[in-house]
Write a structure and sequence with these properties.
By secondary structure, the protein is α/β, with parallel strands linked by helices. 36% of the residues lie in helices and 24% in strands. A six-stranded mixed sheet has the order 6-7-8-3-9-10, sandwiched between helices. The termini are close together.
Amino acid sequence: MSDTRDAQCLVQVRDLHVDFRSGRGQSISAVSGVSFDIPANSTVALVGESGSGKSVTALAILGLLAENAEPPRGRIEYQGRDLLTMPRKEMRSLRGSRIAMIFQEPMTSLNPVFSVGFQLCEVLEAHLHLSTRAARGRAIELLAEVGIADPGKRVDSYPFQLSGGQQQRVMIAMAMASEPDLLIADEPTTALDVTVQRQILELIAKLQARRRMAVLFITHDLAVVGEIADMVVVMREGLIREQGTAKQVFESPLDPYTKALLACRPDLHSRPVRLPVIADFMGRESGNPADIPQRERGLSGKEEIILEAKHVAKSFYLKEGLFRQREIQAVKDVSFRLPRGKTLGLVGESGSGKSTLAFTLMRLHEATAGEVRFEGNDLLAMPPARFRQFKRRIQIVFQNPYASLNPRFTAGQILMEPMRIHGIAHSEPERRALALALLEKVGLPAAAFFKYPHQFSGGQRQRIAIARCLTMKPDVLICDESVSALDVSIQAQLLNLLQELQDEYRMSYLFISHDLAVVRYMADEVLVMSRGEIVERAGPDELYADAQHPYTRQLLASMPRGWQARPAT
């Protein structure tokens, strides 16, 4: 990392205020009096939860605020010029050439109807005025520079033909096309596998060193921040709570909110019975919650088995020509046993077969082979009418709460619908009372009963999804990346909730995640999956201390380990 003490200041943000007009004519403050510097050739991390104002601050720098934003107040100086008063034509010329941005979700940033090469060429022709032929050649060079294999062919690929990591690399190539002075990276690694996340972080660091540019890195993951940042700016509710060098913020945080963010995320050295949350720190002078006892994990081998998978396989078939088809084996000969009241962790990269296995267990996919025995009954072999009796006892929380909740139903309707289908409770008033009790159980107020999904945050929607599963009082809950991409504080609340429910109801969890720290915290046994196969299984402490399979060791080596893993300078 660069030494920022004598570095020239590239961008200065001074007393920035950003307000938005609501539909009722009211003004809502998103950023209030924010000031910080971005030195040249350095990495500044902008940290905070969703809604803290991080992305709004970045969009204000680029002049890309939404139409309902009031004109921002304050100053944003780039090389001595105020970006807030710069003429629109000059700002358009500056944007993408001298200041570029990588957005959080590449699939919504890349145009699905144009090839990635066309979109790269569009940037090159607009900012560097290259000919069509020269732009295509440069586009191929950029794809190679960001690590896209076979760039000569991939340049003609469409976004949907690329993996999430490849899409993010294309976004980086587009941002780097004009060799900007400042790269703004807005949550560029959120929800990516640890190995792909490591590749993206190393790629950004390599490009920064080669081109000597500044990076404004926006994230809620302090483990990542600890490894890459020179300076850290902590935001909450539109205000800066703390800022300083990475060493100062990580070793001697001053603000309770900063201390809370550092403490909320599970680590590899402790396993408290309950994870600290933001509320444990705010309002405390010391900023430290009471000492929390540790939770024991692991299996004795004598536990009652509630669910057992035997040699489960799932293949998909693609047509090739008129008479041929190609088999893709997504799940290959998977066997495991899930004890009652315990958690089985399942880790692996995207495409390893984790979600396909979960969907096959739930009969959302039809198995190619194998058995899934629940209390001695083979769920895969029984007719649909009989399976319905067991379906309510095995539930799944999907990864994306935005897609898994009906947008036309209120939270109350979402919870009461499965009760009606499965004949739970005898009347509507009873179902309503049960739904209200479940909302309280997952930490939502009674008023949430009448609200629609779009009126909730991501963490609140996931709580509703969990409450919907609880209406069935299941014995087995499959959590498919159910806390991925959530702020660390919301993630801690949901992990605490899942653990409380397990303690109270002796529920069994199949906990699927690519976040190895979270899996270690939750699981009694861990299965590592690669290319459809289980390549390693062990207790969480044993696996993390002495992984045997090269793939497992690769996953563990890719984990962001925060400030403590940073080499001394």
